[in-house]
Amino acid sequence: MNTPIRVAVGGVTGWAGGELARGVAHAQDMTLVAGLSRGAAGQTLAQLTGHAGTPGKAVASIAELAGTPYDVYVEYTKPDIAKHNILQALAQGAHVVVGTSGLSDEDYAEIDAAARAADRGVLACGNFAITVVLLQKFAEMAARHLDQWEIIDYAKAGKVDVPSGTVRELAYRLGQVKAATQTVPLDQVKGPVETRGATMSGTQVHAVRLPGYQLGVEVIFGADGQRLHLKHEAGDGSKPYVSGALLAIRKVHTLRGVVRGLDKVMEGL
């Protein structure tokens, strides 16, 4: 029998991290050995997950995990602390799965260098839902045949990071195909240029933050006399993300450096 994967979850009481922690605790091939939560520090992981066989307690910072052996760290905290946590986990010898949004391409370049120096893998997934994985693949296919597109990022009113990690990843991946062309270059528009959105990896991105949304992304491709819309919308629950995150945990040890996109470890995609 293979040794269970020892997992530490950052944001162990969060909306997504909490659901994942319960998933890890109940997985036959994993053991939840640590969790980060400032608010729940000192509470047992068994109490937080509802799984009596889960060892250990939640701690306030990743520095406190230095004495706890773990194989994979899952980053599900906040954008302002995510990069620090990832770099510390790599320094402590773990592979890393990233679910936190808000990290830039420059951040990932720094993380990639650290991961390669540590001979560890980092799997960065802006979204673990299968519908998002398919949207990303379909969008890459479309970008090979169409020249103009823009992205709309939808999220709840209180989401402070813009755009979402899902949209950052999508823009990055489209940029690996090519930059979108514009009929009217930004320096030639009449009026506030900000209304054309932000340019990310060669794509114009527009972020909507309103009550009534949870998470969503739409990429619109335009051509003469035709238009293609690819759209993902999430519900209120976080369970759809668990199976993809568990797959990422199982596969990240096969990688070296930063790899972006869950599809990179999914068979058939």
What would you note in describing this structure?
The protein is of the alpha/beta class and 269 residues long. It folds into 2 domains: 3-123 and 237-263, 3-Layer(aba) Sandwich (Rossmann fold); 128-232, Dihydrodipicolinate Reductase, domain 2 (2-Layer Sandwich). Helices cover 30% and strands 25% of the residues. The protein contains 7 helices and 12 strands. The strands form 2 sheets. The protein has a 7-stranded parallel sheet with strand order 3-2-1-4-5-6-12, with helices on both faces. Strands 8-9-7-10-11 form a 5-stranded mixed sheet. It starts with a strand and ends in a 9-residue tail after the last strand. The mean pLDDT is 92.
Quick structural summary:
The chain has helices at 15-26, 45-49, 79-91, 105-118, 130-143, 165-177, 242-251, and strands at 5-10, 30-36, 58-59, 72-75, 95-98, 121-124, 148-155, 198-200, 203-209, 215-223, 226-233, 257-260. It is α/β, with parallel strands linked by helices. It has 2 domains: 3-123 and 237-263, Rossmann fold, CATH 3.40.50; 128-232, Dihydrodipicolinate Reductase, domain 2 (2-Layer Sandwich), CATH 3.30.360.10.
DSSP summary: helix tally: 7
Q: What's the Cα radius of gyration?
A: 19 Å
Q: Hey, roughly how much beta strand do the residues contain?
A: 15-25%
Largest sheet: 7 strands, parallel
The low-confidence parts are none
CATH topology of the largest domain: Rossmann fold
Report how far apart the termini are. 29 Å
* Helix and strand pattern: EHEHEEHEHEHEHEEEEHE
Percent helix range: 25-40%
Q: Let me know the average pLDDT.
A: 92
Give the overall shape.
elongated
Number of strands: 12
Please state the second-level CATH architecture of the largest domain.
Answer: 3-Layer(aba) Sandwich
| Biggest sheet: strand arrangement | 3-2-1-4-5-6-12
Structural class, by secondary structure, is: alpha/beta
The CATH superfamily of the largest domain bears the name NAD(P)-binding Rossmann-like Domain
Structural domain count: 2
Please write the CATH class name of the largest domain. Answer: Alpha Beta
